[in-house]
Write a structure and sequence with these properties.
Elements (H helix, E strand, L loop, with lengths): L7 H9 L8 H97 L1
């Protein structure tokens, strides 16, 4: 096996196509440097995109935390209002029961007075 058939030429042909057969080692290195620079630029773009995505994710997380705090406050206040509402509702029902009983007693007393007046007059 000779040095030229050791795999270098075949590998170059696979990576760079037929163009690599006519390239010198310096040309291949320059081409490799160019490809690596393009990859570095692409990686930089991806890195910047990930940094922006991370910033947005942190901002969204903070907003979600703030919204959860607000929801928790609303829930607590709703429970307080609900409790007060039921307490006042029981008071209103008690007053209604007492007022209906009082009204019946007023009617009974008025009827009793009317009966007495009728008996006295006749």
């Amino acid at each position: 096996m000779s040095y030229s058939n050791w795999g270098g030429a075949e590998l170059g042909s696979e990576l760079f196509g037929d163009r690599a057969r006519n390239m010198t080692t310096d040309d291949l290195r320059q081409d490799q440097v160019r490809v690596m620079q393009e990859q570095d630029r692409g990686l930089e773009v991806i890195s910047q995109s990930l940094a922006r995505t991370r910033t947005m994710a942190v901002a969204i997380g903070d907003e979600v935390d703030d919204q959860n705090d607000l929801i928790e406050d609303i829930k607590d206040k709703t429970e307080t209002v609900h409790s007060k509402f039921h307490k006042e509702n029981r008071h209103v029902n008690l007053v209604l029961q007492k007022s209906s009983t009082t009204m019946l007693w007023v009617i009974i007393v008025l009827l009793f007075i009317a009966i007495l007046l009728i008996l006295i007059i006749f």
